[in-house]
Structure formats: C-alpha cells, structure tokens
C-alpha cells in the first residue's frame, strides 16, 4: 500500500498518475470500491482519492472507518490512498468535526505505519517520507 498526503489542492492525484507511465489506474473519489466494483476493474491499480472525505461520510452514517479500511486493505494490499492533511489549523467547535479530524488523523498514522511508501505532496512535488 502507498499513502500520499498533502494539503488541499496540492496536486496529489496528478502526482500519483504521473509517477507511472502506465495508464492502468482506476480512481475512486471519496469512496472505497465494493466487491462488484473491484470485479469490474480487475487487473487495474486502485487509487482511493479524497480518503478523508470517505472517513467523514462513513462516520456521518454511523460506520466504523477503522475496521472498514483495514478489512479492505487485507484483501487489496496494493492500493494507493490519497488524503488531505486535515489536522492543521483551528480546532473546530463542532464535536463531530473534532471527532472526524481526530479519527482521520489516527487512521492515517496507522496507514502510514503499514504502508510500503508514504509521500507528502506540496505544490505538485512529492517528497518520500517513508
């Protein structure tokens, strides 16, 4: 698994797609593919873009993003996950927003620990940090 992080609008997806000369990617935006979607894209590299948005939606719907993402990765270890860094700045007054930021940050820490590679993208330039 590869984790790509960076601020909003820093060119993370473009960086991932340009890193390989292959045109063999299937990008899921703010979602994790289910079994049926995976069958349709079999043999292609899976990119989960806007992972942080998926975490927010999962929490809003009463899901458990920690369990869901790690169960997904167990079956699909070659995925590329792209997420905004959302823990910087002012701490939100809203309790849901605080929980969302906290849990997303902790999930990203766990993903980074498990990842084969972690890249931080700033201004479209990737810096390998693991």
Automatic annotation (TrEMBL):
EC numbers on record: 2.7.1.156, 2.7.7.62
Pathway participation: Cofactor biosynthesis; adenosylcobalamin biosynthesis; adenosylcobalamin from cob(II)yrinate a,c-diamide: step 6/7; Cofactor biosynthesis; adenosylcobalamin biosynthesis; adenosylcobalamin from cob(II)yrinate a,c-diamide: step 5/7
One MF annotation (Gene Ontology) recorded for this entry: nucleotidyltransferase activity
Gene3D superfamilies hit by this protein: P-loop containing nucleotide triphosphate hydrolases
Membrane-spanning residues: none
Record's keyword terms, sorted: ATP-binding, Cobalamin biosynthesis, GTP-binding, Kinase, Nucleotide-binding, Nucleotidyltransferase, Transferase
Known catalytic reactions: adenosylcob(III)inamide + ATP = adenosylcob(III)inamide phosphate + ADP + H(+); adenosylcob(III)inamide + GTP = adenosylcob(III)inamide phosphate + GDP + H(+); adenosylcob(III)inamide phosphate + GTP + H(+) = adenosylcob(III)inamide-GDP + diphosphate
InterPro entries: CobU/CobP (IPR003203), P-loop_NTPase (IPR027417)
Domain of life: Bacteria
Protein purpose: Catalyzes ATP-dependent phosphorylation of adenosylcobinamide and addition of GMP to adenosylcobinamide phosphate.
Family, per entry: Belongs to the CobU/CobP family.
Protein name as catalogued: Adenosylcobinamide kinase
Organismal lineage: Bacteria, Bacillati, Bacillota, Clostridia, Lachnospirales
């Amino acid at each position: 698994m590869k984790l790509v992080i960076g601020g909003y609008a820093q060119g993370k997806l473009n960086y991932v797609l340009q890193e390989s000369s292959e045109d063999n990617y299937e990008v899921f935006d703010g979602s994790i593919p289910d079994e049926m979607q995976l069958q349709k894209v079999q043999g292609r590299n899976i990119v989960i873009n806007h992972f942080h948005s998926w975490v927010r939606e999962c929490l809003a719907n009463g899901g458990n993003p920690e369990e869901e993402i790690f169960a997904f990765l167990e079956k699909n270890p070659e995925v590329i996950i792209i997420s905004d860094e959302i823990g910087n700045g002012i701490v939100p007054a809203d309790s849901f927003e605080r929980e969302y930021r906290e849990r997303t940050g902790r999930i990203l820490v766990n993903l980074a620990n498990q990842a084969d590679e972690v890249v931080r993208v700033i201004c479209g330039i990737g810096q390998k940090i693991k």
